[in-house]
Amino acid sequence: MPNLPVPQHIRHALKNNSIALLKWLLFAILVGLTVGVIGSLFHFALEWAGEMRTAYPWLLYLLPLGGLAIVGAYRLTGMSDDRGTEMILASIRSGQPLHLRTAPLIFFSTTVTHLLGGSAGREGAALQLGGSVSSAMGRLFRLDDRDGRIITMCGMAAGFSALFGTPISAAIFAMEVESVGVMYYAAVVPCLLAALIAQRVALFFGIPPTSFVVTGAPELNAQAMIPIILMGILCGVLANLFCRVMGLGGKFYGKITQNPWLRAALGGGILIVLTLLAGTRDYNGAGMEVIRAALAGHAFPAAFALKMVFTALTLNAGFKGGEIVPSFFVGATFGCAVAPFLGLDPSFGGAVAMIAVFCGVTNAPMTSILLGYELFIGVGVQPMALIAAISYMTSGYHSLYHEQKILYSKIRPKFINAFSGDESEE
């Protein structure tokens, strides 16, 4: 049979695609290895901070000084206007490069926050670490604006994956979080490969992937549908409330002072008083122990509300860290407490609410479903996916990230004005 000639335009397309694939394979490997090492070091730093905070409870009383140290570090390096994860999302949209000094600053400031007892997570900091390092790589290799956006997303995925050990959801989150309704599919190969490599680097350093044991997952039948739907609605409302509380924290400090030094010192003092009033250190740090207890079926009924307040007052005072693990805490404790009233197992209720609240505050449904699968090893994934989807739909147009743009309505296939809820014809 004679060989048929391949049209020139097809040969040209295959050549360009092959070159692009090779380029992004190389960049993804480089980003995954580099951010994987940095993320692993960050993990060890936060583990050390948590151990020191537990061993020396008096460190809590240094919170005001820690806040001043963080403000001073950002002032000294000319990064007073740094907006954390917001700057990462803005960079993806605009192609504007990120400062490399963001990485050591967020490393230092998040460690201080955890060491002294601020209520914050780690994944938001990991997004900044990975994004700033990979953006610097893009400048080093003189990538254009479009490729610079992709390599920044690679770093975000790698940082998230190194700390949490969930490479698939990390890759999708980097692609999904910036513009709700539109995903950057051009980044799927480099983001996924970078995330997988970063996870392998973390495993090499002895950091196991985060996983939880959940029990009591019901069959997805007609009898279970009503409590599952109700849980999804409640989680959507709670996610909306969490975002509003975070906003109120900023307004609270803004009415008192606009001076960042005073705000940090004041915030540290308020957190000390609240911790003493609460009579427990459960709301200091990330709170992973409380999350695990909730997923075992044990949670203080008001824990979710207290964690929202502690987190809002911590991050809005100028302390650094992430909002993702606090959203896990809020969801897990709420779901554990509410589940018996809905006829659901407390362990299962904590697990699905943890994922659903995360979905509502980040507006990232695909990430949430995959995250539930990776964190819970596939247990209860179908009802978990349904609850997350309902939470996404009912959480409104608020977000933890003000730079996030919601491009499509959550209820109709139409463009909307981001966060306004006003729909307009496409």
Report on this model:
With 426 residues, this protein is mainly α. The protein is 67% helix and 1% strand. It has 16 helices and two strands. The protein has a two-stranded parallel ribbon. Helix 15 packs antiparallel against helix 16. It is globular.
Number of contiguous helices = 16
Low-pLDDT segments: 418-426
Shape: globular
From the alpha-carbon coordinates, what is the Rg to the nearest angstrom?
22 Å
Name the strands of the widest sheet in spatial order. Answer: 1-2
Task: Give a brief outline of the structure.
The chain has helices at 8-55, 63-76, 85-94, 102-116, 123-140, 145-164, 167-176, 188-204, 222-256, 260-278, 288-295, 303-315, 324-338, 346-362, 365-375, 381-394, and strands at 179-180, 405-406.
Features:
single chain; mainly alpha; two-stranded parallel ribbon
